[in-house]
Specification:
Elements: H1 4-26, H2 32-53
Helix pairs in contact: 1-2
Length: 56
Amino acid sequence: MLHMPRIRSLETRHAHLEERIAQEGARPRPDDGILTRLKREKLQLKEEMERLKRPN
């Protein structure tokens, strides 16, 4: 697959965002704005990965 290096990079970033979301959510008073931004970015990465995995 031509896009594998890009997909792996996106998967790494996606996992990192997942960790940051968990850390923010575990705080006594999580910042809703930060959580929203992180979740939106994570979703965008997931959508891009799915797009790259689709056959032409």
